[in-house]
Amino acid sequence: MMEELQTQTVKLLVLTPNGRNETGYNQDRFIFNSKMNNSKQLQQFQFLGMLFGVAIRTKKPLALPLSPLIWKMIIEEPLNISDLEENDTYYAQNLTSIQNIHQTGVTEENFEEAIPFLNMTGTDWMDNTVPLIPNGHYVSVTYSNRLKFCELALKQRFHEMDEQILAVRRGLSALVPLPLLTFQTAENLERMICGLPNISIPVLKTIVRYREMDENSQVVQWLWDILNGFLDSEKVLFLRFVCGRSRLPSNLSDFSQHFQIIKVE
């Protein structure tokens, strides 16, 4: 199911703008699709939140690479322009340039010459033009209102997914009391739901058991040498094969399914 979410079979998630533009951070991360907002689609987001709750309760992580922005939104952590930059570098840089344009010598008199045809519209996470105020297409951005323009552009982005975030929180709250999330950081919540992001071979060695051989056996050494050469995606396939997981839990004491290496004559 997590793979279907990422391959657009179910259109609840979209790649970050940085991912589409191949620039900046979080190029391989996903955000919620704000266009999926009818009652059926919001129920799907609510179910996704329930899956998050199941992952926390059962300590079986989900392989779902959501942007850190989403985890911050779920726990209602305050956001700032750096959160935008980590997901849409170009847009954040444009807003920062407009905000600080006075540092380049631009004044109220030559602002329109420096940035012509700019009106009170921004872009959403899918790069569609959206008005920031009523009839924003017909209201020009000026030197004096440019800071308000940047403020509205940030507000639009950070609240665009409110319906989807609310639905996920509603689903999550069916299994995990939401007040508990106030004591978590976004990073901790991601680890609780998605486990450790990388599959470490030294960590794998701590959850293996041997039968009729030991860790010093030549065949075992060959196995670890081969695994060390695997790509991350190949390590995921190996972990899925030996224990049905795509990620390691954040706390290895929660890993009840040790895999075994058995000597076969």
TrEMBL record:
It comes from the Eukaryota. InterPro entries: HECT_dom, Hect_E3_ubiquitin_ligase, HECTD3. GO terms for molecular function: ubiquitin-protein transferase activity. The keyword Plastid does not apply. The keyword S-adenosyl-L-methionine does not apply. Gene3D superfamilies: Hect, E3 ligase catalytic domain (3.30.2160.10), Hect, E3 ligase catalytic domains (3.90.1750.10). Pfam families: HECT. Keywords: Ubl conjugation pathway. One of its GO terms (biological process) is regulation of signal transduction. Residues 1-249 form the HECT domain. PANTHER family: E3 UBIQUITIN-PROTEIN LIGASE HECTD3. This is Putative E3 ubiquitin-protein ligase HERC1.
